[in-house]
Amino acid sequence: MAKRKIKIKKNKLGAVLLTVVLGLLFFSLVLRYSYVMLSGQSSGEDLIMRANQKYLAQLDQSAERGKIYDRNGKILAEDVDRFRLAAVIDKRASEESKEPRHVVDKKKTAKQLAKVIDMSEKDIEKRLKMKKAFQVEFGKAGQNLTYHDKEKIENMNLPGITMYPEVQRFYPNGNFASHLIGMAQKDPETGELKGALGVEKIFDSYLSGEKGHASYTKDIWGYIIPNSKNEVAPKRGDDVHLTLDSNIQVFVEEALDDMVKRYEPKDLFAVVMDAKTGEILAYSQRPTFNPETGEDFGKKWANNLYQNLYEPGSTFKSYGLAAAIQEGKFKPKEEYESGHRDIQGSRIYDWNKKGWGDIPMSLGFTYSSNTLMMKLQDLVGTDKMQSWYEKFGFGKSTGSLFDSEQSGNIAWENELMQKTSAFGQSTTVTPAQMLQAQSAFFNKGEMVRPYFVSSVMNPVTDETFVEGKRKVTGKPITPETADKVKEELDKVVNSKKSHASQYKVEGYRVAGKTGTAQVADPDNGGYVKGPNPYFVSFMGHAPSKNPRVVVYAGMSLAQKRDQEAYEMGVSRAFVPIMKNTLQYLNVGEEKLDEKVTIHKVPDVTGKSVEKAEKILADKSLNPVIIGQGEKVVNQSPSSSTRLLPNSHVLLLTDGDLTMPDMTGWTRDDLVAFESLTGVKLKVSGSGFVTSQSVGLQSPIDKKTEIEVKMKSQEEE
């Protein structure tokens, strides 16, 4: 009996303990769920956010990148819609479809696609027959296809063929002020276009705009819940308007191409600047690259105008001359002894080794005498001459917007450096500094800063964020001194004893200063060795008395015809650039006709060919019809571009491509044709088109080989 009582007591105790444990568990669960319900947190995780992530869908919307324009409204860089071709070749794609979703007839598909993309029928068919692949693409031939290409392929009704839209950065002119305009590339992580070089990089934050996004809530089955969509539209990027003039830029590019063919230099540049305002009208360098194709990208990263330091040679003598004139130490008719000077154990010669005996100072400058410049430094005073170079802006950057602009260095550590600096050795500069210093001679002693951006503005809001304008950066000399320097620069080119007559330009009086300098060897120290290891240059302006334009060109280490390069300098580039620019700007004897009206190109896309022709004719513009269609689908130049009367406007129609009459076309017209049609031209010569290898109205496509010959008016 006692044992039974003890057993009953133990059972009751177990039941109580079990009830207590279960009660505690239940109570803790109640507390836990209450906490979760009230706080929305579990194990440190926000459950509301987690639920939103599960049922909330978000889509980013890319902003249109801003355009880059020249001074006349011609597009230099813009976003364009392009398409990538792909083909589904796996039969399983069509299993649950009434219509085929894969390539059924591979031979027929290959034959049709070969009419549009730059790939042979045989190679296309080979791709379509690949095994163990669900989908195939066609490499470079199937990328960067235009809307016109897309329409052609879609009209073929080929099963399994897909076109993926892509936004590409388009540079319609190819090799064209590439180191200034720069290049935008897709970020491999985000897929967004980012500026990698030049203006594209400097103004990336303006050009990029702001992303938009759309969000909506969906139920557990994936359907969108009504009225749940929230959308923020993307903000278009701002446009950058440059001071470049595309027509003058063409003159520069063609001249540099000619120099490369003739001399094969290691380095080459040319820049055109408005003498009064400091606006950069054109700039290019070699080696260069094509931002559209990426060809030669990376051969040289630095922009010579702002980022490349070099010893300028005798063009630097102009600033020592100006200092001596200002100090009253340069006396044109007073004679000095030319030949050589011994400095710190080194003998420094005039460039002809023996000099010219005792000659007047003015003639010494015309002859580009080194001993004259060393004597003028002595007369002015060594320390005072250094301060004069500083007044002209050397040793510090011009303060441009260009990233990583170099400051250069006035080499003044010892007497040898001081004396060699007098004729442009030892001291280092940038072309931008040289242009800024030179501008003092054309603006009554005031220096103006070179600049290349006219404005940064948003075409939607009409806000202007950056505005380029003429800026005086100092006044090192008086107007009288400036005039006297111009007189001496005129003698360098135009006097009877000139050694620089190769820089004369027919029909215009040009003045300027030549330069020949040894090239520093960064790898081995000292200077590059060889028969003609020189940097040759010319800083010239025209008209001589009242300059409108400054052209500065320089070339380093010609690998071909080096002796000719030493003797002729950069005259083969300078002369055509200066002449074409002056003629284009109506400078000199050809006064600007104030009655000439510059028209804005109207937008005629979407209009019938007949109506488009009438609209353009009413604006005194010449329409050029490309294709057999009845409606205009694209045009070049684009709307709002400013053109002179009788300029060509190319109109692409919705029909098959046909060959237009290119007689009399300019390089700009040819670039526009390639941009609109995707047809590449083989161009020889310069000036205006005189002949073409394909007849008028002949059918053409991307595979058609078209040769175009150009000649200047002087050659005809």
Automatic annotation (TrEMBL):
GO terms for cellular component: plasma membrane. It is found in: Membrane. InterPro entries: Beta-lactam/transpept, Beta-lactam/transpept-like, PASTA_dom, PBP_dimer, PBP_dimer_sf, PCN-bd_Tpept. Keywords: Membrane. PROSITE patterns: PASTA. One of its GO terms (biological process) is cell wall organization. Residues 595-655 form the PASTA domain. GO terms for molecular function: penicillin binding. SUPFAM superfamilies: beta-lactamase/transpeptidase-like, Penicillin binding protein dimerisation domain, Penicillin-binding protein 2x (pbp-2x), c-terminal domain. Its main location: membrane. Belongs to the transpeptidase family. This is Penicillin-binding protein.
